[in-house]
Specification:
41% helix; Rossmann fold; seven-stranded parallel beta sheet; 284 residues; alpha/beta
């Protein structure tokens, strides 16, 4: 697949990225885009062994990153674990000498109303989504402040508090994802003096991933989605921008790419036609 050209003001060559998740889907696409520049990517993920419901493991992802031109380090662990988070940040520093980018990609989803959502399901989403984002960012920050272009990028949505639909549909999930976005805004404010950029990124349309196949209708549902590469290219545009030029923003993938000069999004659509696509959660 040939994607639209993306002009950038920088490069990720030699930069070190710490990412939660990344074994597949959007996270892996972001890692592979960075690897094409020669970035170092540290993945903190749980998928150590093949799972019939999921494509690939953390070790498969690391091999793909290296084939793409990057250097990879697979840290088998759980973003809910303080020990795993500390290990990922520590190994990034000991192996590659520092941390330039923290990407909060891991996320749990339960599409349930309040009465159907169990306490354990609620806790899982809060622990992975909001707490995991805060703690991984916290572990990376002492090293980010020493980088010449430090970025925190979180896969979370704009805050849409006027839509009764999203407030009512799955409140437990909404709370956990909006919590991630609030972490973005708080870190951007707290570390503005240090020049650390903190932004969130969210897709305009549903992205074709294992979650779509498993939860939203199988392979047929993919025809109404875009490929993960659209989020990866938008992430690349953000991460190669000077940190002091863009921070504290809750961004949408195709808006970022339009700013970067992309006008044709058909190559990102699984069907090859960029219309009739399913919109993603939280966007009216």
């Amino acid at each position: 697949m040939t994607l639209p050209p993306l002009e950038s003001r920088g490069t990720l060559a030699g930069k070190t990225i710490v990412m939660s998740g990344g074994s597949r889907g959007i996270g892996l696409a972001i890692a592979l885009r960075a690897a094409r520049d020669g970035a170092n990517v540290v993945l903190l993920a749980k998928t150590d062994k093949p799972d019939p419901r999921l494509s690939g493991t953390i070790h498969d992802a690391a091999a793909q990153i290296e084939r793409a031109g990057g250097r990879a380090l697979a840290v088998v662990g759980d973003v809910r674990s303080d020990e795993s988070v500390a290990e990922a940040a520590g190994m990034a520093v000991s192996t590659f000498g520092g941390i330039d980018v923290c990407i909060n990609n891991a996320s749990a989803l339960r599409m349930s109303g309040t009465l159907e959502l169990t306490p354990s399901q609620y806790d899982l989403m809060q622990d992975i989504n909001t707490r995991g984002t805060f703690m991984l960012t916290r572990a990376c920050l002492p090293h980010l402040v020493a980088s010449d272009n430090p970025h925190v990028l979180t896969l979370s949505p704009p805050l849409n508090l006027t839509s009764e639909r999203w407030l009512a549909e799955f409140p437990g999930y909404l709370l956990s994802k909006y919590g991630m976005s609030l972490v973005t805004l708080a870190i951007a404010a707290e570390f503005a003096h240090a020049g650390v950029a903190a932004n969130s990124l969210w897709p305009r349309t549903t992205i074709g991933t294992d979650a779509v196949r498993n939860l939203l209708g199988g392979d047929e549902a993919l025809t109404r989605t875009r490929r993960p590469e659209i989020v990866a290219d938008a992430a690349y545009a953000i991460l190669t921008t000077p940190a002091r030029e863009r921070t504290g923003q809750l961004l949408i993938d195709d808006d970022v790419l339009r700013e970067a000069g992309v006008t044709d999004f058909s190559a990102y659509a699984y069907s090859g036609i960029d219309r009739g696509l399913d919109g993603d959660f939280f966007l009216d």
